[in-house]
Protein 1
Amino acid sequence: MIVRPELASDRDAVRRVHATAFTTPEEADLVDALRAGADPLVSLVAEEAGDVVGHVMFSPVTLPDHPTLRLMGLAPLAVVPARQRTGVGGALTRAGLDLCREIGVGAVVVLGHPAYYPRFGFVRADAYGIGCQFDAPAAAWMVAELETGYLSGAAGTARWHAAFDGL
Ligand SMILES: CC(C)(COP(=O)(O)OP(=O)(O)OC[C@H]1O[C@@H](n2cnc3c(N)ncnc32)[C@H](O)[C@@H]1OP(=O)(O)O)[C@@H](O)C(=O)NCCC(=O)NCCS
């Protein structure tokens, strides 16, 4: 299995990954909307024997009171059902966080399974006073600093790209 940047030729396969991993087409549509409108964008695929078996996207998130901070949001992440729990999601997440750090991002937020993301360094965002624009359980709203101390004093409500509105 290799993790690599998404190519234009992967688009249909990426849609299939999200359509099979999730119960609705919302995530596949979200990926298309982010690709069209978000910048910078980190979009990685996991490929096995020529097939795309997983995909992750990271897009900009802002803290309105701290406009100079560079944050990204991890969403969506999906692995085709037959390949779940074999390390694909972990490989995509770790590679994505590394790439975010390389492009100068200081922290990444995620709204997801509280039992899954802490292994990658995510902790509850309320520990930093960072709120979520969506109604979400506190344990599911998490953040990972990519640079120690980056979020000191960074309280506020994080704002995702407009493509997330209405989800
Ligand atoms: C969630 C998901 C991305 C994880 O990817 P994956 O490749 O299956 O996971 P990995 O193989 O990297 O990691 C396996 C570990 O994650 C745990 N895990 C997998 N899915 C989980 C979930 N939904 N909730 C909690 N833990 C989960 C497994 O129990 C396993 O834990 P262990 O290492 O302690 O045994 C994948 O299962 C998926 O696509 N699910 C459907 C879509 C989805 O829910 N996306 C995430 C939205 S936040």
Protein 2
Amino acid sequence: MIRPAQPEDHPACAAVFLAAYRQAFPLHPPDYYVPERYFESITGEEQWVAVQAGQIIAVLSIYWPENFIHSLYVEPRLQNRGIGRRLLEAVVARAKGICELKCDKVNKRAVAFYEHLGWCEVGEGEAETGPWVRLRK
Ligand SMILES: CC(C)(COP(=O)(O)OP(=O)(O)OC[C@H]1O[C@@H](n2cnc3c(N)ncnc32)[C@H](O)[C@@H]1OP(=O)(O)O)[C@@H](O)C(=O)NCCC(=O)NCCS
């Protein structure tokens, strides 16, 4: 089931976020992977979740004023089963007009995932965390 996150979902969303974030970006010090990182990152955004057997298994956060998908994280043990695609496409279908997102270039797997789903590169830049690409659908 895909649905908007409720306030009581956020601890479970933070757990999914941290597990998938650690997998995608494993090189930070251990104390980097704290729930506060999730809570700070979602300010002003709306979260959508994928739920399976009552458990939150993926979370997406979107900033609606710009149709900007800020983050998409799937529980590591459940990746490559179509969950990321279903959550992403369910939210994009609700957007009016184009959607955009930024992805760190080092995260080659995620860039390939988005490109496979038809997202096109429209820009690039450099952040503290390294180079990123801007993708549009
Ligand atoms: C990237 C991520 C969101 C993808 O979600 P997922 O559930 O594993 O991906 P899906 O199973 O839904 O894949 C959907 C499609 O993309 C394709 N795909 C997935 N990874 C791919 C890759 N590296 N290269 C090419 N295609 C890929 C799949 O084959 C599938 O194709 P199909 O629908 O035509 O069969 C997930 O792996 C994840 O949470 N990664 C860690 C966190 C992260 O990097 N998030 C993105 C940065 S914000």
